[in-house]
Amino acid sequence: MRRETVLFLSSLLHAERRRRGTRRGRRRLGCFVQAVLVLRWFLDGTRVKQLAADHGISGKTVYRYLHEGIDVLAAQAPGLAEALEAAKAAGLSHVNLDGVLIPTDRVSTPGPNGADLWWSGKHKHHGGNIQVVSAPDGWPLWTSDVRPGRQHDMTCAREHGIIDALAAARDQLTGLADLGYEGAAYVLCVPVKKLKGRRLTTDQQTYNKLLRGVRGIGERANALLITRFKALRHVSLDPYRIGAITQTALVLLHHENDRTT
User: Fold this and answer.
1) Low-confidence residues of the chain, pLDDT below 50?
2) Closest Cα to residue 45, out of 221, 223, 236?
3) Which of 259, 218, 242 is closest to 78 using CA atoms?
4) Backbone torsions φ then ψ of 188, nearest 5 degrees
5) Contact (CB, 8 A) for 99 and 35
């Protein structure tokens, strides 16, 4: 990662310390070294125990430094309305909507009707659902807050206000999604579902192939985030922090590549 990105995070941490009134010499690590610690965790998935040993601090202090870094970076992430306005201003033909499950090893939490709140029946493991809006070429534009893994993509999209936002923007910006969002087919372009005992017409098959081809490019958004940041491959922090962690990865990706849309 570029030195400019480390300096960017370091400046945010410095501003946060000034806001809190932290006095000079009260912290074991300076802002620059704390920024390096945070980025090692994000990029390489370095264990907290190793970070503590490398910097001569306790594990508790590492966690505090990590959460501070996550908070200041996530605060820089664009909102949904801002991301869609930027997409329209950039002249994008459409945006892709997709969900991704970020794995977590946290213990199960009882949900409605006693169901495991963070267990995804689709993926067969625990995790948090994140909704991602991306550009036609698969560049991630916006990521949502986290919802428990048991929730369906469509449910999460509605709760985050994504469907309403795309409905308001559809005159200038088309939204593409997979069959997981068929409940919003009145807003999004989704494949035609094959009903039991029926066959799709030639036109419907052609439409589905064209839509898959266009959407296939956009699916690289999730891969860009997860491949670049090892911390997203398995989150061991509080699962409710997954949203902020993913937003932090988005901000770092945008800053590192000097691109937002």
Assistant:
1) none
2) 236
3) 259
4) -100, 155
5) no
Contact 68, 34 (CB under 8 A): yes
The pair of three-digit structure tokens given for residue 236, joined into one six-digit string: 């061991």
Neighbours of 204 (CB within 10 A): 14
Q: Name 199's Cβ contacts closer than 8 Å, sequence gap at least 6.
A: none
What angle (nearest 5°) sits at the alpha carbon of residue 164, between those of residues 160 and 165? 85
**Pairing verdict, β 140-143 and 147-148:** unpaired
Contact 228, 246 (CB under 8 A): no
Q: Could you tell me the residue ranges of all domains in the chain?
A: 3-74, 80-257
* Angle CA 261–221–51, to nearest 5: 105
SS3 label, residue 127: strand
Give ∠ CA 141-143-145 in degrees, rounded to 5: 160
Average pLDDT, the chain: 93
Sequence-distant (6+) residues with CB within 8 A of 91 are none
Provide the token pair at 74: 């996530």
Q: What whole-number distance in Å separates Cα of residue 238 and Cα of residue 39?
A: 19
pLDDT tens, position by position, 180-235: 999 999 999 999 998 888 899 999 999 999 999 999 888 899 999 999 999 999 99
